[in-house]
């Protein structure tokens, strides 16, 4: 296995794959939660709007970010949420040009009803998560065949992205990489291929580790990788690492769990060690503003997809920067970009 870069960018295909999740948010926000009616008489503070809609925090974040990314909501100079001109004309019951009835036809579909249920209960559809928790509820990953299929599916995307991650990251001074929840291991293997001095430890469960072992053997890199079966929330290494990779893993968890993961692995870094977050970042919001991002639109759609299958969502750049600060890491100003709306944020332990 050699990590060649694809000739064509996969981003548009992935955007198209996830775009329907914004349609589902639009249906939910027009029918079950009726954001147009809630804001018909004027703007509301975020918390007042959330309470009016009777939505849990994560649900409100995902729904309102989705609607804002579609140009239907905005934040005014008083830091209150309001309908845009487009939102007022098309979602307000007072507008003779509203599309409420037409949009509402979507509520007859099963997918829209599933999204509405997810938003109401702040839980994945059917309460079956695609994230494993040692002490948590049922997970689709409890089934070995499902877990194996999911790991290989994630590997298909990673093959399109990993070469660019390796291209952007300079680990020439690193010696040992700790890959948390590395699954298929392709990001680590691409970095090992680029940096011959580097060795790695991948921590995950089975069967993801079995897939990573298979790929490492095919790449001729098995001798440079340690595969550790463990719970990523509690794993503690017997040594310090100079690099920790959190690749597309934090978005699987709620904000508190994601922050705890960053803190847990920052403690296992050596001085001047680096933590690397690879993920799709929502746009930051200014200090004191409602936690409702402007997008980008494809990342808002991706966030809605994650919301419907696990306990997480996409986080904003300022949220990740805050997680790093709370873990004692100094985040670099430069944010490298890779295909599929991937961003690389690096934090150094002082």
Automatic annotation (TrEMBL):
Record keywords: Methyltransferase, S-adenosyl-L-methionine, Transferase
Keyword S-adenosyl-L-methionine among record annotations: yes
Protein origin, superkingdom: Bacteria
Record lineage: Bacteria, Pseudomonadati, Planctomycetota, Planctomycetia, Pirellulales
Single GO MF descriptor: O-methyltransferase activity
Signal peptide (residue range): none
Record-given protein name: Demethylspheroidene O-methyltransferase
EC number: 2.1.1.210
Enzyme type, top EC level: transferase
Boundaries of every O-methyltransferase C-terminal domain copy: 142-328
Residues in coiled coil: none
InterPro entries: COMT-like, COMT_C, SAM-dependent_MTases_sf, WH-like_DNA-bd_sf
GO biological process, one term: methylation
């Amino acid at each position: 296995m050699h990590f060649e870069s694809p000739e064509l960018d996969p981003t548009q295909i992935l955007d198209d794959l996830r775009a329907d999740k914004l349609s589902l948010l639009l249906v939910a926000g027009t029918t079950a939660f009726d954001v147009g009616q809630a804001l018909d008489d004027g703007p509301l503070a975020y918390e007042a709007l959330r309470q009016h809609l009777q939505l849990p925090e994560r649900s409100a974040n995902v729904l309102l970010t989705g609607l804002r990314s579609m140009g239907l909501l905005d934040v005014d100079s008083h830091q209150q949420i309001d309908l845009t001109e487009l939102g007022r004309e098309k979602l307000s019951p007072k507008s003779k040009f509203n599309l409420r009835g037409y949009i509402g036809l979507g509520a007859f579909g099963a997918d829209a009803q599933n999204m509405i249920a997810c938003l109401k209960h702040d839980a994945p559809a059917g309460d079956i998560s695609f994230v494993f928790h040692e002490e948590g509820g049922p997970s689709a990953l409890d089934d070995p065949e499902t877990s194996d299929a999911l790991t290989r599916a994630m590997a298909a995307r990673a093959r399109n992205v990993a070469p660019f991650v390796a291209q952007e990251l300079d680990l020439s001074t690193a010696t040992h990489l700790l890959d948390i929840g590395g699954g298929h291991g392709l990001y680590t293997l691409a970095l090992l291929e680029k940096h011959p001095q580097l060795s790695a430890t991948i921590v995950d469960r089975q069967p993801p580790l079995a897939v990573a072992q298979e790929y490492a053997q095919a790449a001729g890199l098995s001798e440079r990788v340690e595969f550790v079966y463990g719970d990523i929330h509690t794993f503690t290494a017997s040594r310090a690492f100079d690099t920790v990779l959190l690749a597309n893993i934090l978005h699987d968890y709620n904000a508190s769990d994601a922050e705890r993961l960053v803190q847990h692995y920052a403690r296992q870094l050596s001085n001047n060690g680096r933590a690397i977050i690879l993920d799709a970042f929502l746009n930051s919001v200014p200090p004191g503003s409602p936690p409702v991002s402007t997008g980008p639109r494809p990342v808002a759609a991706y966030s809605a997809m994650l919301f419907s299958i696990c306990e997480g969502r996409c986080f904003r750049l300022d949220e990740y920067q805050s997680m790093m600060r709370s873990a004692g890491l100094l985040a670099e100003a430069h944010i490298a970009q890779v295909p599929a709306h991937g961003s690389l944020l690096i934090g150094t332990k002082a």
